[in-house]
Amino acid sequence: MSNSNTGVSVISEEVCQKVMGRKEAFVAVENVFAAMAKKTAYNFPVIREAIGHADALYGFKSGFDRDGMVLGLKSGGYWPGNIEKGLTNHQSTVILFDPETGKLKSLVGGNYLTAVRTAASSAVSIAHLARKDSKVLGIVGAGHQSTFQLRAAVEQRNFEKIVGWNIHPEKMSNLTAVCQELGIPFESLTREELCAQSDVIITITSAFEPLLDKAWVKPGTHIACMGTDTKGKQEVDANLLVGATVFTDELAQSITIGEAQHAIGKGLIKESDITPIGEVINGSKLGRTNDEEITLFDGTGVGLQDLAVASAAASLAEAQGEATYFTL
Ligand code: NAD
Questions:
Q1: 105 is catalytic
Q2: Are residues 97 and 13 part of one domain?
Q3: Same domain, yes or no: 173 and 255
Q4: Is 227 near ligand 1, meaning CB less than 6 Å away?
Q5: If 141 and its partner were Cys, which of 72, 102, 135, 205 is the partner (CB 3.0–4.6 Å)?
Q6: Are residues 317 and 275 in the same domain?
Q7: Distance 100 CA to ligand 1 centre (A)
Q8: Which CATH number fits the domain that encloses residue 36?
């Protein structure tokens, strides 16, 4: 290993945290969503397997972004027993290749970046779809991702209050601590009260049943459903997608592993009712059209998001002398 700028760069988790800010992640994710909508970037089929050991789910997410010239994969998954070992349950590493030659380019820690890119995704949806006068942000879920979601969301609108709900109340301290630090009032509410007060709602739980009822959500709300990334998971009433204008990061994932899988499966909505957010970013489709509309973003999490933030982190680390290098 060396610090000289040759060979394969290694960007550790620690360096990712040092160099990768929320603004850089937002730009990387917004750009790649736009490229996906233009079909200049595409995700390859996802591999995800229960390996029959340590209760782990392991997989690969891969893709190529011709605009950003980013090729690679994120590999990793979910090891539920890690928390007892003092490790994060989600483990991942991003591997980047030179699209001109196929040569290995960078190894980038993916744990911190996963949280940052997921938060950037809902932040992009808020930036493009939430009412400009949104004042109250509701967060449903208070686990690892929730504080990243909160920090990224408050940068998009002038929120005056945060409201939260979590099935395990002892976890709410994760959200209250960040609100205290940000100097924004926080209130813990029931799910129904949370919907009544919120202009923007982020759901970021591991739920397998609807947590939010259609009748509770007020007109003009923007909802970013971020927790549902697997077949069977669900966070909101499938009927909510009927009345709402639905957007997603990637259509293929939205209808199979995203929040829309249930409304699609029940025949409540059609694939053509869902708009990739990249088309809104590119200006080829409308986003929100009035203040009464409920907009719903189905953020399923695509490999290209991981590659985009990992590539940005590698460039920043290399430019700032924070990368180490090795040759194969
Ligand atoms: P975590 O385990 O740290 O937190 C999970 C949260 O869900 C906790 O607040 C927990 O109390 C709550 N919860 C668990 N079971 C529940 C239930 N049955 N009903 C309601 N709430 C329940 O996980 P995390 O890292 O914060 O991730 C949250 C979710 O986001 C997971 O489902 C994860 O797979 C998903 N995720 C999605 C993306 C994406 O790109 N869309 C990226 C990363 C994680």
A1: no
A2: yes
A3: yes
A4: yes
A5: 205
A6: no
A7: 38
A8: 3.30.1780.10
For the chain, the maximum distance between any two Cα atoms, rounded to a whole number of angstroms, is 60
Locate the DSSP E strands across 98-142: 104-109, 136-140
316 Ramachandran zone, left/alpha/beta (phi>0; psi -120 to 50): alpha
Q: Are residues 201 and 314 in the same domain?
A: no
What pLDDT tens digit does each residue of the chain (328 aa) get?
A: 666 667 999 999 999 999 999 999 999 999 999 999 999 999 999 998 999 999 999 999 999 999 999 999 999 999 999 989 999 888 999 999 999 999 999 999 999 999 999 999 999 999 999 999 999 999 999 999 999 999 999 999 999 999 999 999 999 999 999 999 999 999 999 999 999 999 999 999 999 999 999 999 999 999 999 999 989 999 999 999 999 999 999 999 999 999 999 999 999 999 999 999 999 999 999 999 999 999 999 999 999 999 999 999 999 999 999 999 999 8
Q: Flag whether 2 is in a domain.
A: no
Q: 146 CA distance to ligand 1 centroid (A)?
A: 8
* Residues pairing with 47 in the sheet: 60
Q: Is residue 109 one of the residues assigned to a domain?
A: yes
Mutate to test the pocket of ligand 1, among 205, 235, 277 (most ligand atoms within 8 A of CB): 205
| Token duo for residue 52 | 């029959």
Q: In angstroms, rounded to a whole number, what is the distance separating the alpha carbons of residues 309 and 33?
A: 12
Total count of domains within the chain: 2
Structural domain containing residue 264: 130-301
For residue 170, which phi and psi values (nearest 5 degrees)? -65, -20
Could you tell me the pTM of the whole model?
A: 0.96
Whether residues 286 and 243 fall in one domain? yes
Separation CA 267–CA 238 (nearest Å): 10
Phi and psi for 17 in degrees, rounded to 5? -65, -35
- Looking at the fold, whether 51 and 32 belong to one and the same domain comes out as yes
Catalytic residue among 23, 39, 61, 74: 74
Cβ atoms 202, 298 nearer than 8 A? no
Evaluate the CA torsion angle 294, 299, 305, 306 in order and state its sign. positive
